[in-house]
Amino acid sequence: MLSLLLSRTAGAATLLPSLHSNKMNESPRARKAAAIVSRAGEVRRQVLSADGRTKLNPRPDKEFYDYPRLVKHVDDGFIESLTETYRERVEGEGAEVLDLMSSWVSHLPAEIRYRRVVGHGLNAGELARNPRLDRFFVQDLNVDHRLPLGSATFDAVLCAVSVQYLQQPEQ
Questions:
Q1: Regarding the domain delimited by 57-158, which CATH topology (the fold level of the hierarchy) does it fall under?
Q2: What is the DSSP string of 37-49?
Q3: How confident is the model at residue 41 (pLDDT cuts 50, 70, 90)?
Q4: I want to staple 127 with a disulfide (CB 3.0 to 4.6 A). Which of 62, 73, 76, 136 is the partner?
């Protein structure tokens, strides 16, 4: 299984080349946010071939997720390993976390209190059952990859178990 963890606090955002700013009095955080925003949407390389972007089921994803699928997509051992990775890599107390392509099961450590956890998915019924989410939104990222969230507002962005459903993962 593929799991991606992007964290500003772990330095992932610093992997982006710095862009100069014409405002000398901007704070370091503002310059960093501007660099991230200005690079948003830029595709540096294609991850999938044209065949790899073709779904086996051509119907809209929204139809597939019309009703809650209350199943675990991975076994308990994988969940424990992923939770341990989040425990080690995601800043705890006070961190703001975005959980992309989430479901009714949270992989975040139960003992850590985050300032805010926002979930994204394709079924509101599933997301409503996730006890870790402070709020959530439903959006098909294969139809619209632009997130309705402010830039550089999260300390960690998580996407586990479901990234393979994205037809344009670069975006």
A1: Rossmann fold (3.40.50)
A2: HHHTT---S--S-
A3: low
A4: 136
d(CA 11, CA 9): 5
Cβ atoms 41, 160 nearer than 8 A: no
What global pTM score does this model have? 0.66
Length of the chain: 171
* Domain residue extents for the chain: 57-158
Question: Residue 71, class by beta-carbon neighbours within 10 Å (0-12 exposed, 13-18 middle, 19+ buried)?
Answer: exposed
- pLDDT one-digit tens code per residue, 149-160: 888 889 999 988
**Structure tokens belonging to residue 64:** 């597939």
Report the chain's C-alpha Rg in angstroms.
17
Pairing mode of beta strands 3-7, 135-138: unpaired
